[in-house]
Amino acid sequence: MAGGKCLALIAHDQKKDDMAAFARANRDILSRWKIVATGTTGGRVLDAAPDLDVVRLKSGPLGGDQQIGALISTGEVDALIFFVDPLTPMPHDVDVKALMRLAIVYDIPMALNHATAIKLLPTLKA
Fold first, then answer.
1. Is residue 68 classed as helix, strand or coil in its secondary structure?
2. Does residue 92 have a known ligand-binding role?
3. Nearest to 65 by CA among 17, 15, 12, 6
4. What percent of the chain has pLDDT above 90?
5. What's this chain's function (predicted)?
6. Host domain of residue 21
């Protein structure tokens, strides 16, 4: 992924509606970013805000979380917004934990819920 700042967007199934609404409501700020997203989340974001520059990767359980982790480790992702559902067990929980670990190791801004994402957005420089 060449040029420009890149934001990763991920949402667990029960949070995909929230992510779509977040993208729609914040399309002006998000439009300044290249966005990578896991497959279904990316599709929902594009449905809500078709003018955004979104690259859809694989679905999270099929490797999308790991793809985003790889982009973080190579310095290609500058921030992560991940709407986590803490109440639903995830079969790919180890992938989610690995992704969050990489965001911490590489010291990129990370929001795990809507309230934090709203606070994070204005601080991001595209």
1. helix
2. yes
3. 12
4. 79
5. Catalyzes the formation of methylglyoxal from dihydroxyacetone phosphate.
6. 4-121
